[in-house]
Description:
The chain contains 8 helices and 21 strands. It is an alpha+beta fold and 371 residues long.
Amino acid sequence: xxxxxxxxxxxxLAAELAxxxxxxVERSGGTRPERRIVLLERENQYAYHSTGRSIATLSETLxxxxxxxxxxxxxxxxxxxxxxxxxxxLRTRPxxxxxxxxxxxxxxxxxxxxxxxxxxxxxxxxxxxxxxxPEITARAAVERTAQDVxxxxxxxxxxxxxxxxGATLRTAIGLESxxxxxxxxxxxxxxxxxxxxxxxxxxxxxxxxDAVAARLEVPPAGLANLRRTVxxxxxxxxxxxxxxxxxxxxxxxxxxxxxxxxxxPADETPSPPTDAVAAPxxxxxxxxxxxxxxxxxxxxxxxSWAGLRTFAxxxxxxVGPDPKQAGFFWFAGLGGTGIQTTPALARLAAAQLxxxxxxxxxxxxxxxxxx
Length: 371
């Protein structure tokens, strides 16, 4: 089995597949051979693109009902992984959603849809983040159980677990093309390092997922890559325990980071798959909007970056076998909730690929099928 893509999604799936396969071999008493699991990453390092540029929040108020169910399941997995390794992967940081007078209705709708949220008045929101201006907190909501995810530690854990379970992990190897032999039920993949024969290809290539499908002559899933800009600004008086503050109208978010303030204009600019770079105008918009929403006077940016978030038309992840091409499995379109849903998605995908049962409370896997 060949997994294309070495972000957190691909490595999590490699680890879950190798470990589940090992357990299945043990249950069979060693009467069936272990599957060969190979991960191919084009870059010289893992997690160079979307994974390494996420702000890594675990929040049950983000995304669709399916993504929220995946987030709840992932929280349990992340807690267990942290306990097993002795390195906690989650750290509490509340999320505060804010609305001005024009967007109170949107906040009320979010409260209705999100059991993890509790309504808060302007004073309560400003107790958590004193820099908020009263006029932009006509109504607020707080998710006190939200957490930050240690992405670097999570990625390293999956990488170590995959290797320990027998998966082969390779960087600096690019997929060029591939052909499917229906009689043999196998792929012959051509890479810039030679050929590879495998019975199944798993497409975990993030922003390049549709491009990978095209190289194998599989119809694309219609994925859209949207650029998200983030900057860290110098700011005085920022409390390290301040929450992540999100504008319900989708105009900005911010939180403390490395002694400054992480800010974003919550942009979604269409982009081809590329090494995304922050545009100066988007950084300026972020600073302007956060200054308008707070008493802070941000004027100097310490660093900035951009990442691509990849969405299917319905904004749910795409997980499952291609409906027309045998031997091709999609694990793509994780969008803006990739870090917080990957642990559960990887277990679900591994179970599907190896024919095992795995249920996630509140999730119908059919909602994620590539159709």
